[in-house]
Amino acid sequence: MKPELLHVKDFASDAARWILACAVQSIATRGLFRLALAGGETPAAVYSEMARSSDAPDWSRVQITFGDERCVPPDDAQSNYLMARRSLLDHAPIPSGNIFRIAGEADPDHAALQCEAQLRAVATRMGEPCYRHDLVLLGLGPDGHTASLFPGSPALAESQRWLIPTIGPKPPPQRITMTYPLLNAARHVAFLVNDPKKQPVIDDILAHRGNHPAGAVQPTEGSLTWIIGPGK
Ligand code: 6PG
């Protein structure tokens, strides 16, 4: 399916509005909104806007997962969970049992297997072969990485597991990432990019040039949207 390009003026509020509309629609249709949060710095302002929006969904029907996590404790400044907690999770009444944190403080393989087991339990309850996110949010690195799927990484070839430990060039190096099987099972995927310096990478991906990891995110039976802001 051809990706949708959404060039927005006010990145944080426009992206937040788009995500919340997706949430409301998903809850109305399926009674649930399963959302994977992107890490890094870009999404924090979007999550803060989501938390304070008057267009809030029924947060009790929202499940939260994380596209990747750094192998650090949850109170470490580098933790994607901490960024999400400060910007969204501490401000939206999402049931704690609906937040599937990746235990960055634990042994990486154990943490990946533990989170995957939680998602498999939900998928089984829902009669799904694979946990199907309603929306996966992803960032984009200047080298074309997304989540913690970095160029040349063995993680790119993972075809069975949904989360695996990996090593990346972006500090901190030790991470846990969702893999393509889980990402591409999503109903919708949205890249959040708010840095004009990344536009050449987006252009490459849209033209199927280069071998960017982000370019292999292609939902099997879902849609793909690029939400592109003007930069800070
Ligand atoms: C991470 C992210 C990573 C991020 C991109 C963009 O843990 O670092 O998952 O994939 O989304 O590197 O990062 P910025 O938003 O900080 O530019």
Q: What's the shape? A: globular
Q: What is the top-level CATH class?
A: Alpha Beta
Secondary-structure-based class equals: alpha/beta
Low-pLDDT sequence parts = none
Global Rg: 16 Å
Report the major sheet: 6 strands, parallel
The secondary-structure element order is: EHEHEEHHEEEHEHE
CATH architecture: 3-Layer(aba) Sandwich
Q: Which topology does CATH recognise?
A: Rossmann fold
Beta-strand share of residues: 15-25%
Distinct compounds present: 6-phosphogluconic acid
N/C terminus separation: 30 Å
Q: Explain this structure to me?
A:
This protein is of the alpha/beta class and 232 residues long. It is 30% helix and 19% strand. The chain has helices at 11-30, 43-52, 80-89, 108-125, 180-183, 199-206, and strands spanning 4-7, 33-37, 62-66, 68-70, 135-138, 163-167, 174-178, 188-193, 223-228. Strands 1-9-8-5-2-3 form a six-stranded parallel sheet, with helices on one face. The chain has a three-stranded antiparallel sheet with strand order 4-7-6. The chain starts with a strand and ends with a strand. The structure holds 6-phosphogluconic acid. 6-phosphogluconic acid (6PG) binds next to strand 4. 6-phosphogluconic acid is lined by residues 38-42, 67-68, 70, 80, 139-141, 145-148, 170.
